[in-house]
Amino acid sequence: MDIERINEYTVKFYISYVDIEERGFDREEIWYNRERSEELFWEMMDEVHEEEEFSVEGPLWIQVQALDKGLEVLVTKAQLSKDGQKFELPIPNGKFRDLPVDDNIEEILEQHFSPDYPDDEVVDEEPLEFMLVFNDFEDIISLSTRTDLDHLITKLFHFEGKYYLFVEFLDEKLKDDEDIDDTLSVLLEYGNETQVTIHRIQEYGKEIIANNVFAVLRKHFC
User: Fold this and answer.
1) Between 193 and 89, whose confidence is greater?
2) What is the pLDDT of residues 13-31, one digit of tens each?
3) What burial class does residue 8 get, using C-beta atoms within 10 Å of its C-beta: 0-12 exposed, 13-18 middle, 19+ buried?
4) Angle at the Cα of 56 (from 140 to 191), degrees rounded to 5?
5) Exposed/middle/buried for residue 213 (C-beta within 10 Å: 0-12, 13-18, 19+)
6) Tens of pLDDT, residues 35-78
């Protein structure tokens, strides 16, 4: 992927369809599958952040141009207006596009990647999933001592010298947002959330523990 830093607020990058497919994405699904298009976008943004230290804060203005052999993406960070009521997104002709403060990246991505669905079409709610990264295996072992997390669906991978823990919340175990936040707070005491997708990890990483990660680790290391 080729990355070009335009200025403090804008970055442009190009990714070929070959690169997209090597990452485990289908060329067609990025246009018709919202979840997969978001996964690809955040995976690319992770690389942009690592190479250009371009952090994502607040809404983004995204331009996606389909070329013969790949995609060209222009990403601009919004700046909060002086009155604090709107985000200002600079566009190439020097003007500004104003967005309400509650606009979010998912809505913007949907405009660029996802097709319109009929009003009466029911779309299944996506499961609540997270990917955590750990630099030290001992941190995962320490986390496994929390038996109150055993209800989570978990998988453990090794990829590029780091350990990745995939976590999925079971619907029947979810009580309210506060319970979810409490569980995430515990997880984030030991690891860091990452935008690297489960699809990339499964494609290029090595699966260490297929399920019940915490119970398995306690059995062997605690």
Assistant:
1) 193
2) 888 888 888 888 887 777 7
3) exposed
4) 5
5) buried
6) 888 888 888 888 888 887 777 666 677 778 878 788 888 887 76
Residue 95 is predicted with a pLDDT of 39
Per this entry, what is the length of the chain?
222
Q: DSSP string spanning 134-202?
A: ES-HHHHHHHHT-GGGTTSEEEEEEETTEEEEEEE--GGG---HHHHHHHHHHHHHHSEE----HHHHH
Contact (CB, 8 A) for 41 and 47: no
Which strands, in side-by-side order, build the sheet including 10-16?
2-5, 10-16, 70-77, 60-66
Within a 10 A sphere around the Cβ of 65, how many other Cβ atoms? 11
Element counts in the chain: helices (H) and strands (E): 8, 12
Task: Give how far Cα 162 sits from Cα of 38, 128, 145, Å.
Answer: 23, 23, 20
User: Strand pairing of 206-209 and 96-100?
Assistant: unpaired
- CB-CB contact of 164 with 133 (8 Å): yes
Cα radius of gyration rounded to whole Å, the chain: 19
DSSP 205: S
Write the CA distances from 210 to 56, 77, 151, 166, integer angstroms: 32, 38, 15, 10
